[in-house]
Design a protein that fits this description.
Order of helices and strands: EEEEEEE
Largest sheet: 4 strands, antiparallel
Helix content: under 10%
Shape: globular
C-alpha cells in the first residue's frame, strides 16, 4: 500500500499488513511492515506506531516498533515490523488504521 507520511525529511515509503504473518510457511502472528527512508542529512532514530479500529471506530489492536540500537543513516532505508502479539482476537475485524511516525 502506498503511504504518504513524512517527518523532518524521514518518510514512510511502503506499508503492508500480514494477516497472519508467516515464517517459513508457519503462521507466526499478525503484523504490519513499514519501510522508512531517511532523506535527511543526519542520522535518524525512528519510532512507528499502528492502531487498528473496527467499523464502529473501536480500538481492536495496537503495536509499536523502531530503532533500538543505532540509527538510519542519511539516504538509507530500514524496514520495521509492528507486531500485534498479545491482543489478536478481534484484529480481523479491523476496518481502518492510524499510523504515527517519529524521527529524532
Amino acid at each position: 500500500m502506498a503511504l504518504v507520511l513524512a517527518v523532518v525529511d524521514v518518510r514512510a515509503d511502503a506499508f503492508r499488513f500480514e494477516w497472519p504473518a508467516t515464517l517459513m510457511r508457519v503462521k507466526t502472528g499478525y503484523k504490519a511492515v513499514i519501510k522508512v527512508v531517511n532523506e535527511s542529512s543526519r542520522q535518524a532514530r525512528i519510532g512507528v506506531a499502528v492502531a487498528l479500529y473496527d467499523a464502529d471506530a473501536r480500538l481492536v489492536g495496537a503495536g509499536t516498533a523502531g530503532t533500538t540500537l543505532g540509527t538510519i543513516d542519511p539516504g538509507d532505508a530500514a524496514q520495521f515490523s509492528v507486531e500485534f502479539g498479545h491482543v489478536t482476537e478481534r484484529l480481523e475485524e479491523a476496518a481502518t488504521f492510524h499510523i504515527a511516525l517519529e524521527a529524532r
